[in-house]
Structure formats: structure tokens, C-alpha cells
Amino acid sequence: MTHWPLLSLVTFLPLVGVAFIMLARGDDEIVARNARNIALSTSLVVFALSIVLWVEFNPNTAAFQFVENARWITIGGFTIRYHMGIDGISLFFVLLSTLLTVLCVLHSWTNVHSQVREYMIAFLVQETMMVGVFCALDFILFYVFFEGVLVPMFLIIGVWGGPRRIYSAFKFFLYTLLGSVLSLLAIIAVYFQTGSTDITVALAHSFPAHLQTWLWLAFFASFAIKVPMWPVHTWLPDAHVEAPTAGSVILAGILLKLGGYGFIRFSLPMFPLASAYFTPMMFALSAIAVIYTSFVALAQTDMKKLIAYSSIAHMGFVTAGLFAVTSEAVQGAMIQMLSHGLVSAALFLVVGVIYDRLHTRDIDRYAGLADNMPAYAFVFMCMMLASVGLPGTSGFVGEFLIMLGVFRVSTTECFLIATGLFLGAMYMLYLYRRIIFGTITRVDVRHMLDLNLREKLVFAPLLAIVLWMGVYPNSFLAPMRASVDHVVHQVHAAQQAALRRRTVLSSDEIAPAKAGSYGSILSTVEAWAPAVAAMTGKGG
Amino acid sequence: MALAVVFLPLLAAAIAGFFGRAIGDRLSQAVTCGALLVSMGLGIALFFVVILPHAGPQTVPIASWIVAGGLDADWALRLDTLSGVMILVVTIVSAMVHIYSVGYMAEDPGIPRFMSYLSLFTFFMLMLVTADNFVQLFFGWEGVGLCSYLLIGYWYDRPSADAAAIKAFIVNRVGDFGFALGIFAVFVIFGSLDFTTVFAKAPAEANTVIDFLGWRVAALPLACVLLFVGAMGKSAQIGLHTWLPDAMEGPTPVSALIHAATMVTAGVFMVARLSPLFEYAPTALAVVGVIGGTTAMFAASIGMAQNDIKRVIAYSTCSQLGYMFFAAGVSAYMAAMFHLFTHAFFKALLFLGAGSVIHAMGGEQDMRRMGGLWRKVPITYVVMWIGALSLSGIPLFSGYYSKDTILAAAWASGTAVGRYSFTLGTLAAFMTAFYSFRLIFMTFHGETRADHATLHHAHESPWVMLIPLIVLAAGAALAGYFTEPYFVGALHTWFWHNSILVLPQDNSLQAAERLHGIVTYAPLAAGLLGIATAYLFYIVDPAIPERLAIQYRAIYLFLLNKWYFDELYDRLFVNTAFSLGDGLWKVGDGRIIDGLGPDGIAAAATELAREASRAQTGYVYHYAFAMLIGVVALVTWYLFPR
């Protein structure tokens, strides 16, 4: 284990890059070139450092690693600590953030013309915020990053966005404001409960049942909007449509994961009873997300909107998997989040490639690109297949594990989300057909050029990781296993303890267990008992 | 050796796919064909040297794949007689199709891409048949589906081909929806997805009950039926068959390899592979039998009225797969596999022969514009006859042995499902012979109906196409006679060696050996009658079919329009999906969620602001009046005791 403050380096090195970019002087051309070079080299160094995290990571423990803990602010008896650390759950989100930042900088090399310096600064600041969110182990610190990440995104959409960017930013603001206020209230409540803003303290704390419900709902408001879950999803298609390509990549790749990360980091372990109580609701909303948005995606004529809606459907799998709380489903949800981070990012880049050439997102403007853009068609095909979860790609591992785990808990839910197998294929194949297949009828389409070297360099790592994760997912599953199992066990233990208390109080009140049906908290918990036993029997 | 058999095609596919442009058409063809020939040679050697003498381990592990929670799935090759037979079929037919494609696709601009897809398909198919667990089975299963999609849509500039490709993928995905749920059910029942573990535990779980969608149901039959839904999709059984005829949009070698000999038989293979599960789920077997018997008859009936030469053979494939399924449904898995084996030869032969005819006719596929071609394409003509005789079940030809065994086993099983499928199967045997020879007579005999120019250019195919035809024709003629003792005859217990499980009380094959009397001759009689009818209709008096079509117009249209499945599905599902999507988007997202949510709140806020601003009129007496009211209200509030 190294003694370097690795996490702080990964988190704040981008800000050093920002400082260097700000020092750049000269005419616009030189400043832009320097900004690009500095941004690329900074993000590459950060990415390399984050790889060190992965290599040095100890997969055998659920404890936080690379921990840094120092006093930050003290006011009277109130102390905020600078507490950072990662476990198997946050490790890959950090990696995903640093990777996508590199690719975003590379992608934006030539297609951003105005205010290049500010653009690169926004992305580097964004990187600091993203990495910070996943490393923070103090609620205040977390909240600063969690909200701070929105600022660069607002600017990216607002300054470099499309024509309706004001409406989109406003809509996004309206949604997140509500969530943020409620989650801040919840964080304050947690502080009064535990007497500390430390996340590790809160994770070990046992909250009273009645409070769990309220705190769960407050956090839910914030996370559900980020995911986004149906019916608070309508900001996403608009935000994506207006955002520049690289903005969409970060939005789909990282910002949506904040919701899922919040659920698994806070909601499940801190409020296990409330989680069980709300599981039927989460299942219902997830199933609606999968089915509803798949149909909506089918009706789209705007490429970015279509992929935005597909994101909602894919995140529906994630929320279903997380709240099934079986080892398979939660690991599946983690893989699905990573996979979606890569695949949807790649799909937005795929859209970006042809948008750069023809400046329209209208599907009907394109046809027959297989003729003059074969490399592009190949990349698009691979990413489309990963999106529909073809075995051998990352998408399959995620969806398969989720459904496998969900089936144990609720066959109905599994049945409903499994329709995503063909609903997802429906809109993606239809999209691919309209853009890539057919015959070219327009002159400007005929003159579009295939991927250039820089674009290939952007796609190559994404493609490689998507296949790697599909063929040998154990590289990713192994480091997260201990942490995920820890959460699963913690949740089940709390639920069983509550069940035992209830049994002692009134042993004859409990209805017979009815696995797989939506019922009260008790029947849900009871339905899990065999699954828990099976898993603890396996030795974790 | 096993690894080389499976991975050589993948390597070839990668080379032809990524470097096809660099190395050129010729080298791409050489690499893929060469790899496939080597793979075939090794596959045959593997079968006779390792698998049959049981000289090696049954499982060749490659790597660990997914380990999560209770799931531990490996990449591994399972080598037993069942996968061995499939390796033989897949590598032989695939090698022949590769070689044939060199000639058939000679003038196509995308040769490396085509060859790459074919090799990639072979890889996935081999992964499927050698799967050691459900997850790898699913990997191969979806992989072949992908290649099928790519190859059906190979000529992507044709809208019909694109539509057919999407249809194939999505209908298969509907099947896979069932398949996946079946896999999950197996996992919940057994706690493992490994074949060996699951099969060993199957007898103990025969009476397990689980919850499914709120009902308490028997676990094994549920899992088996769900898995069979996947097989129905892949093997184009009634209800999920609509993609197969459309799949004929792909180049003909593809139809021969994927949509006749190998991929579509994956469903049958899967049921045979899972015989240790299905044997303990008699209800599921009954479902398999009924669906199979129905499809056999239903698809054959449509085949009688089609005019596109490839569609006739496509429906025939559908129908023959039905035979295999109802064989499995009466526990005669070995007979099903036997028919799969012989069918691979004669059906690939018929498709490639049809391809040769189409090639000769410059792309014409409508049999109404053919006729009298036998002089022009004599070798194709002869091999097509062999294929048709084999398909019709004429003694000494391969199809006779397998089909006869299936029908005998169905009757001998003595169950209601067996009787049902025997009846429909015999009826289908008549129809099969009829459409086979209708095809032969309409294409090769009688007066020609082709226009002069086409006929003038009609020519026999090059040797690179004819040699595969001759190899397959040899198989179609002889394979059945020589292999019958091993597959279903005296030596079958030694041959299969535990790779297929049949419970003693279900042994319909054994019962079939004791069968005698009229039942044993019925299939042959039906076949001969079918040929005679076709002869009467299309050689003796070609006016009869027209008269019948007019007289029984409703029936004719019903058959010609394929029982109206496509129209029904379009109306029920396709149109509904699009309008539902549109409605949910515009009404659900637009009016309800946004209307009540952000847009509504924004509008309300604006409205409130406007109301508030209206109070600011600018007249001093308005403000003064408001102040007065306020003062009065405050004073009242403080003065009155509460």
C-alpha cells in the first residue's frame, strides 16, 4: 500500500490542470491549443493514477481503502472532516469518471470552436467533482461534490448547448432543486441522529424504523431524479438533446450513476427496513421504466432522444437489481451501471460523430451509412449489441445477473423487466436500420467520411472494455464482491433482526410467507429468508 | 483439438472481417474455407478418436466466466456423443457452404464480409453445441441469432432484407425472453446453471413447486416449458415461425447453413441436451409434442401453395423441425437427433440446389417462371431429385429412416400426444412429398415458362458449387442407411453413451421395434401418394391445381397467405407498439408528466407572478386602501383576546 494520498491526487489534480490552463496567454488559437494539450495530459495522468488504485486495490475486504482522514472545519462542537476512501462499490465509478474525461477531451478536440479554454476548464472541474463524489466519506464533503458536479454541467449545457438549452437547464434545475433540498434535510437529520457527519459512522448506525421511512424518502427524492426513474425522468431527454456530445457522455456515463450509487451507498445499508418496505414501489417504478420508455424510444425521430430514453430503460434494470438485494442482482446492477456508463457514452459519441459531419440529429436525414462508413458501422453495431445485452458484451452480464437475482425475489418483476430483452432490441435495431442500412439518397450523406484516427482512438478503449467485461467480467466482479456482499448481508441481517423482534412480540400475527408477491414488509422479508440462508451458507 | 475445432472459425472470421480489405477477396475466401476444412477434418477426427471411444475428458475447461453470488459459469467445451454429432453436422455443412459460397457470391462486392459472417456463425454454433452450462448455451444461442440477423440483412440496401433481419432478431428475442426466464427458473430450483450439477439433481426436484407470477406451479415443467419457448423461437415453431420464411431474403448459402441445417435445429438440440430435465417434466414433453405435431402439419400445408422456390423449402424446414420436436415430445430424442442429422444433409442440399437453379436463372426465384430446366442444369437436377426423394421419405434414402422411426415411435408411445402427432405427421408426410415433387416438376419438368433471354443464359453452376452439392447428395442418399443402427438401431445405447437420458417407462424407440401392421406402412404410403398427386397435378394435367384453387378459393388463399399470421401479428403487435410508443411519449411524457410537473409548475408560477403584478397598479389610493385594511386587521388581531 502506498503512502501517497492517492485519492486526493486523483480528485484534485484536474484542478492543477485548470490552473495551468488559466495561465495560458497569447491569441485565441494558441490558448485553445494549450488548453487542449493541458487538459488531455492532465486527464491522462489522472487516469493513470486511477489505474494504480485498481492495481493496488485489495479485493478481499469490504472496508474502505486508501483512506485519508483529517479535520477540515470545526465550529464549536461541530466538526466536518476531510474523510476520503473507496471500497469495491466506488472503485470502478472513479475509474469510469477518469476514463470518460480523457475520451471527452479527445472527442472535443476539433468540434468545439468557441471558448475552448473555458470548455476544457469545465470538464476538468467536472472530473474533480465526479471523483470527489465517489470518494467522499463525510456527508458535507459528499454534498459539496454531489451538488458541485451540477455546476460545470449547467455551464456545459448552457454555454455550448443547443438552441433550447435554456428550457432544458431550467427543467433540470427544477427537478434537482427539489431533490437536493430534501436530501440536505435528510443529511441534517442523520447528523442529529448519529452526532457526526461521517458516512462510515452513519453506515454502522442503526436507525429507528419510523425515521428510516422518512429519511429513505428524502434520499429517494434526490437519487430517483438522478437515475432518473419514471416518472421524474423527463428532464433527461431534453438535457441530452441540448447538451454537446461530450456533455451527454458525462451526463449518461457518470451523472446518472450518482442515483444508483446513492441507493447502494446510503439507502440500502442505512435504511434496510425502509428499503424492504418500499421495494414493491421500486419494483413497480423500475418495471414501468423498462417497458414505458422502451415504447417511447421506439417513437423517437431524434437520435439523442432515443438513446436518452434507452438510458432510462437500462437504469430501470439497475434500480430493480439493487432493490432485489441478492448478491447476484446487486453485482449485476453494479456491472449494468458500469456497462451503461461505457455503452451509452459510446452511443452518444456515435451520434456525435455523424452530428459533427451533418449537424442534424434527425434519424431520417441519414441512411445507408454502411456504404461509406464501414468502420463507423462496425463500432455502432458493437455498441448497439452491447446495449441490447448480447452475450459476450458487458450489457449481457449486467442484465443477466440482475434478472437472475430478481427472479429469486419476485418472478413477476423478473417477468416484467425481461420484456426489455425484446423491447430493447426493437428500438435499437430499428434505429440502426434507419441510419446504417438502406441506400444513400442524399449527396451530403454520400460525402460523409469514415472515422478518423482520433475518433478511432476514442472508441477503441470503450469497445475493448465492453468486450472484456462481457467475456471475462471477473476482473470487475472480484474487486466489488466483498463490498457488495457486505451491503447485502447488512441489509438482510437488519431485516431479519426486525423480523425476529416482531415474531417475539406477536408470533401469531404473521401471515404465511408468500414468496414473489408484492406484500407487506414482513412477507417480503420472509420471502428473502431462504435466499439469505443460501448465501450465508455459501460463506460469502 | 477441440479448442482448434471451435476457435479456428473465429480466427478466420476475425482475419476476413478486419483485414478483408487489405488481403483481398481471394485470400479472405482461402482463409475462411481453409479454416473450415481444417476444422471439419479435426471435428471428424475428434468424433471418431476422442468422443466415440470415450478416450478423453468429457469437459474441456477454458476459463471462468461469470462468478457472482451463487452463480459460477465457466467457458468450457462439453464433448459427448450429442455434441459430437452436432460438431459433425455443423463443420461438414459449414465447410460445404463456405466452398459453395466462393462460387455463388463470386460477383458480390462484399465477399470478405460475407465469408467472415459465415465463419463467425460457425464459431457461435460450435460454442452452442459444446456448451457445458446454460449461460454458454445462451451465449451461442444469441450469437447465432446475431449472425443470422447479419446474414439475412447482408444485402442491406434492400428494404425487404432489412425488415426480415429485424423481424428474425426480434421474434427470436421473444423466444429468448422465455428461454431466459427458463434459465432463471432452473437457477432458482437447482442453485446452479452447470449441466452436470443440474442433471444430477433433476430426479430429486421432480416434485418441487415454485411461485410464478403469483401461482404455485410445478417447478420442472415450468422451467422446461419456458426453455422450450426459446426453442420455439429459434426453431420456428408455430406462433414464433413467422421470421423463417422472411429469412429467405438472405443469400441462399445462408439459408442452407443457418436456416436449414444448423441454427434452426438448435432448439431440437437443446431439448435433447436437456433430456435429463424434460424426462422428469412429462407435462412439458406433452407441450413439445403437441407444438411439434401441429407445426409439422401446419407448415407443410403452407408449403403446398407457395410459388417461391426458397419459401417452399423454408416451410418444409419448419415442418421437418416439427417432426423432430414431436419425436422429442414422445421421448424419442435419439430419433429426433437422427432426423436432425439426415435433415441437415438433404435440406442443405435442397437449398444449395435451389441456389444453383437461382444462379442459373439470373436471380429468378418464382417457380411459375421456371419449368423444363433439367436439360440446362443436369447435375443440379439429379441432386435435387435425391434431395426430394430423401425429404419425401422414400426407402434407401436418408430421410426415410429417420422420419419412419419418428412416426413409429410416436405411435408406439401409446400416449394421446403420440397419436395426435402420428396422425398429423402422416398427413404432413403426404403434403411433404407433394410439395417436394411439385417443386421438382414445376422447376425442372414440363414446358418452360421462363422468358427466352433468361433461358438462353441459363447454365450449369461451376464446379466449386457442384462439388459441395455432390458431397451433400451423397449424405442425403446414404447417411440414413449406414448410420441408422448407431442412432436408433441396435447399437444406439453404445453410441449415445449416457448423453441422452430416456426413462425406461418412456422408451418409445424400444416400443417402436415391436410395432407391426398397417401403422408401419402408413408414412411410406402417404409419401408415395403425395408424389403421385404431384405427378398428376403438374405433369399429367396442369389445369387441375388451377381449377382447385378457383373452386376452393378460401382454402387456397388461406394457405397462400400463410394462415394470415403476418397480417395478424402486424395488426396486433407491430402497429400497436408504434402507436403505443407515440402515445406514451406525447401524452404520457408530454401532457401528463411535463404538463403537471415542471411545465405546469412553471406555468403556475408565471400565472401567480402575473396576478401579483396586477396588484401593483401605481394608484396611490389603491395602496392607501390596502394599508388601511392591513392596519385594521392588525389592530383587530391584537385587541381581541384569544
Can you walk me through this structure?
The complex is a heterodimer of chains A (540) and B (642). With 540 residues, chain A is mainly alpha-helical. Chain A has helices spanning 6-23, 28-56, 88-107, 116-135, 139-148, 150-160, 165-194, 199-204, 209-226, 235-242, 245-270, 272-298, 303-324, 327-358, 369-372, 374-387, 394-409, 411-418, 420-436, 443-446, 453-471, 474-505, 521-538, and strands at residues 65-75, 78-86. Chain A is 76% helix and 4% strand. By secondary structure, chain B is mainly alpha-helical. Chain B has helices at 2-51, 81-104, 111-129, 134-152, 159-190, 195-201, 219-234, 243-246, 252-261, 266-273, 275-278, 282-303, 309-329, 333-360, 378-392, 398-412, 416-444, 452-457, 463-487, 492-496, 508-513, 518-540, 543-551, 553-560, 565-596, 598-615, 620-639, and strands at residues 59-68, 71-78, 209-212, 215-218. In chain B, strands 1-2 form a two-stranded antiparallel ribbon. In chain B, strands 3-4 form a two-stranded antiparallel sheet. The longest helix of chain B has 50 residues, at 2-51.
Keywords:
heterodimer; A: 540 residues; mainly alpha; two-stranded antiparallel ribbon; globular; B: 642 residues; two-stranded antiparallel sheet
